[in-house]
């Protein structure tokens, strides 16, 4: 994580440092926003992943594809089911998944969208276990649908790692 680190989330930073991180990420997002594809624009500004529960993760090494499924939202905005498919993975360490595989539940604490110098996209995610993943990819698709608050429960995520 570049902006929303574990220290940021756990309150180890001063209020000034916390606000600085928020402002710097907002400014950075403003800088790259026009270079993002529509789906990443929507993900970065309109689909809050904070406190989202991950239900399943599937990684296909030969297809260079990673799929996250989860329930997101809160009582204020409502709940939604979201499937994020990262396509044409450029860089992804599957050992990130091994590290989180045995966790009793996974919740997203924060995430960051970025662009690399060679015009690949990055999605950094900090989980409730304080494990981080960084996903570098060329394309992304999302599927979004209504969900019920009953679907938002702590459960062990199903994680499949397919190496072929």
Task: Give an account of the 3D structure.
By secondary structure, the chain is α+β, with helices and mostly antiparallel strands. It has one domain (37-162). Helices cover 23% and strands 41% of the residues. It has 4 helices and 7 strands. The protein has helices spanning 6-10, 15-32, 38-45, 95-100, and strands spanning 53-60, 65-74, 78-91, 108-115, 121-127, 132-147, 158-162. It has a 7-stranded mixed sheet with strand order 4-5-6-3-2-1-7. The longest helix is centred in the first third of the chain and has 18 residues, at 15-32. The chain is globular and about 45 Å long.
Features:
164 residues, alpha+beta, seven-stranded mixed sheet, 7 strands, globular
- Unreliable runs, pLDDT <50, ≥5 residues? none
Secondary structure class reads alpha+beta
Q: How widely separated are the two ends?
A: 29 Å
Estimate percent helicity: 10-25%
The biggest sheet amounts to: 7 strands, mixed
Mean pLDDT: 90
Q: Give the domain tally.
A: 1
Estimated share of beta-strand residues: 35-45%
Shape label? globular
What is the count of helical runs? 4
Q: Please give the oligomerization state of what you see.
A: single chain
Task: Please count the beta strands (DSSP E, at least 2 residues each).
Answer: 7
Radius of gyration based on Cα positions:
15 Å
Order of H and E elements: HHHEEEHEEEE
Strand neighbour order, sheet with most strands:
4-5-6-3-2-1-7
């Amino acid at each position: 994580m570049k902006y929303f680190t574990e220290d940021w989330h756990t309150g180890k930073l001063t209020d000034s440092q916390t606000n600085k991180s928020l402002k710097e990420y907002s400014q950075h997002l403003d800088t790259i926003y026009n270079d993002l594809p529509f789906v990443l624009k929507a993900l970065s500004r309109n689909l809050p992943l904070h406190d989202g529960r991950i239900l399943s993760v599937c990684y296909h090494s030969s297809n260079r594809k990673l799929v996250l499924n989860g329930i997101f939202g809160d009582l204020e905005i409502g709940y939604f089911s979201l499937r994020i498919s990262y396509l044409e993975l450029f860089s992804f360490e599957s050992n990130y998944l091994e590290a989180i595989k045995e966790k009793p539940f996974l919740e997203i604490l924060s995430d960051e969208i970025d662009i690399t110098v060679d015009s690949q996209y990055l999605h950094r995610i900090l989980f409730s276990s304080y494990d981080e993943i960084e996903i570098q990819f060329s394309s992304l698709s999302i599927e979004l649908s209504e969900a019920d608050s009953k679907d938002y429960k702590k459960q062990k995520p199903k994680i499949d790692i397919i190496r072929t």
